What we know:
Blueprint: H1 23-52, E1 55-61, E2 70-71, E3 74-77, E4 82-87, E5 93-97, E6 113-117, E7 123-127, E8 132-137, E9 147-152
Parallel strand pairs: 1-4, 3-9
Antiparallel strand pairs: 1-2, 4-7, 5-6, 5-8, 8-9
Amino acid sequence: MASLSSAAVTAPSFAAPARAVSRRSSLTVRASLGKAAGTAAVAMAASAMLAGGAMAQEVLLGANGGVLVFEPSEFTVKSGETITFKNNAGYPHNVVFDEDEVPSGVDPTKISQEEYLNGPGETFSVTLTVPGTYGFYCEPHQGAGMVGKVTVN
């Protein structure tokens, strides 16, 4: 003999409480949060600049298609800003500032990277402080046209 039983389940009902916070105070909180977020963003940007120097420009050594170029090949920075040269390909590259194409009084051996950056992602950074135009090249690929120019204001 089979028996059949049933059970009833009652779901409790829930009524939302009346709004306890006025619309005006909600807007005030939102405005305060927006102001705090803006202040935090400014503080983070300022501390990043103070901690690592101003990052003015990243220059790729070798284009994505394997072309032997600096990308960009010509650019402008402010005096004291950092330029980071990043090997973008598997070729060995370096950055040599041409002694005939730097401002008077600048020793190109002190700002050049004679050693090769051999792997993708390897970097060399330099900070130029004397205003003027600086010509640079990649020693093994200069003949292929891998040359560049930076103007420091």
